[in-house]
Specification:
The chain has 374 residues and is of the alpha/beta class. The protein has 16 helices and 12 strands.
Length: 374
């Protein structure tokens, strides 16, 4: 998969800045237009006929106001040691790339590797009990020999307890934010967030100065779940953000563990519910979890996770995706028109499929509207 040019990166940021446009809509726009730059070059007639793109979004794109905002954002990132990880970049997290709703771009600060071999998400209530605090600190201490990256949300309660325990044990930890990197929320966690930059860091899909409004928290939770091999729920009420994170983790086919709590405790009602309904494995210790995951405590860093490599068979893909991959394997690099003719597909349908395969790290776009296997 080829890396985006600077112009394409700015245009991609401009789409993110466009009101009413999210990551799935951006995929739709790019797939129909052929690239982020081409979206802003398209006219009204082309844009309005793209499925799911309404009049309001079309007018916002045509105004091109977001392009100027994106240019300033791009410069601000360079001036604040903020890294941008676009979906085509080698630094983009391999665990997120195959997900249908993964962010188009991630902003990060700090010193860490998204693709460490073991990642553990730790989530839970903001109203943490003494029991929850003790369990969280014990989990972090027991994770230390396994060389895992700990992911959480920098929130009150379980999240910040996990981050601070990682700092104490010199373990890498990443805070996934519902705001932009210039807006630490809650503000009382600024000191911990600053300390995390030395061994870990901060990540978000939001522009630098974005405020943390209500709807950004569920979106943040999907990133926590997507970055984590395992999500551990320490304490949770029957409803709340932790259970939303669990739903995402299950949708992504990731392992979920819940810490059992005292019967009748409001803090543990959600965890006990997850265990009762077989939505999470019961957490008893990191050692037991490591056995279930096949982890070895060998004192050495295991191999990092790599992006999906080309397979010799195309199991797990749709029939249409498999047909495209088979054609590219048989004939090598192919032009878009030729591929559409050979596959017997309309260009709009083919463009959407090609973009999805690019997101999965299976193919790459080449100059001259050609495509090839990675």
């Amino acid at each position: 998969m080829s890396e985006l040019t600077e112009v394409e990166k700015i245009c991609t940021l401009a789409l993110i800045h466009t009101p009413g446009v999210g990551s799935i809509t951006i995929r739709q726009l790019i797939s129909y237009c052929g690239g982020a730059e081409e979206v802003f070059q398209a006219d009204y007639r082309k844009l309005i006929h793209i499925p799911g793109i309404g009049e309001k979004v079309v007018r916002a794109i045509l105004s091109k106001e977001s392009v100027g905002m994106a240019e300033k954002e791009f410069v601000s990132c360079s001036n604040t040691d903020t890294s941008l990880h676009f979906f085509t970049d080698p630094t983009y997290p391999a665990r997120l790339k195959p997900l249908y709703d993964s962010p188009i771009v991630l902003y990060s600060r700090g010193n860490f590797d998204f693709n460490m071999a073991r990642t553990v998400g730790i989530v839970g209530t903001r109203q943490i009990s003494d029991y929850g605090k003790s369990v969280t600190e014990t989990i972090i201490k027991e994770l230390e020999p396994y060389h895992a990256l700990v992911v959480s949300g920098l929130a009150f309660g379980v999240d910040i307890t996990a981050h601070r325990a990682c700092l104490k044990h010199n373990m890498p930890t990443v805070g996934v934010m519902a705001s932009g990197l210039n807006v630490i929320y809650p503000s009382v966690h600024k000191k911990a967030a600053s300390e995390m930059l030395g061994n870990g860091g901060l990540v978000t899909e939001n522009a630098l100065d974005t405020k943390p409004d209500f709807m950004r928290f569920p979106a943040r939770n999907r990133i926590i779940a997507g970055l984590s091999d395992i999500t551990i729920v320490v304490e949770s009420a029957r409803k709340g953000g932790s259970l939303i994170t669990v739903e995402f983790a299950q949708n992504y086919h990731r392992d979920v563990y819940a810490v059992p709590g005292m019967l009748g405790s409001v803090h543990s009602e959600g965890c006990n519910f997850l265990i009762r309904d077989n939505k999470a494995s019961i957490f008893t210790s990191v050692a037991d979890m490591a056995v279930a995951m096949g982890w070895e405590q060998n004192g050495k860093d295991p191999e990092p996770v790599r992006p999906v490599q080309m397979q010799t068979s195309f199991e797990g893909f749709t029939q249409d995706e498999g047909q495209i991959l088979a054609l590219l394997k048989q004939k090598g690099n192919m032009q878009l028109d030729e591929l559409a003719w050979q596959a017997g597909m309309h260009l709009n349908k083919l463009a959407a499929l090609l973009l999805n395969l690019e997101f999965q790290g299976m193919i790459r776009s080449l100059p001259g509207k050609k495509y090839g296997l990675i």
